[in-house]
Amino acid sequence: MNTQTQQRWSHGRILTARIVAVVADALQVGVIPLFAEGIASPLDAALDVLICGTMMLLLGWNWLFLPTFVAEGIPALDLCPTWTAAVFFVTRKSRRALPAVPVVPQPQPKGGQLQGSDD
């Protein structure tokens, strides 16, 4: 992922992706009986496809979403907060990519001439 893509992510988009990831992982842990079958569970697979698509819409494609998606299909490993970890890892540099640099106006030279020129 390049810096230009990271600069397009708004704070709201990053926050939304993080909330979606945390909620998805909480659902998979909190509702264990529905997701206990691992890859054989249609609810688990549907949730993972939905979350993967949502992450790609919010943050664009990132290589880290592929192993996360595969890990979610492995029984017991899907109980780890893999979506949360992936999203926080992908968005971790976004604040550093957009430094807050104050804009200081330059003083205008008097009389429309550049200072230091002897015309």
> How many DSSP E strands?
0
Q: What's the shape? A: elongated
The residue-averaged pLDDT reads 76
Alpha carbon gap, first and last residue = 51 Å
Task: Write down the secondary-structure element order.
Answer: HHHHHHH
Q: Which stretches are poorly predicted, pLDDT < 50 over at least 5 residues?
A: 1-6
Largest sheet: none
In what range is the share of β-strand residues?
under 5%
Instruction: Round the Cα radius of gyration to an integer and report it.
Output: 23 Å
Class of secondary structure makeup: mainly alpha
Q: What is the number of independent domains?
A: 1
SS field, number of helical segments:
7
- Binned, the helix content reads 55-70%
Give your account of this protein's structure.
With about 120 residues, this protein is an all-alpha fold. The protein has one domain (about 5-95). Helix content is about 60%, strand content about 0%. It has seven helices and no strands. The chain has helices spanning about 5, 10-30, 30-35, 40-60, 65-70, 80-90, 95. The longest helix is centred in the first third of the chain and has 20 residues, at about 10-30. The protein is elongated, with a radius of gyration of 23 Å. The protein starts with a helix and ends in a 22-residue tail after the last helix. The relative contact order is 0.16. Mean pLDDT is about 75; it is low at about 1-5.
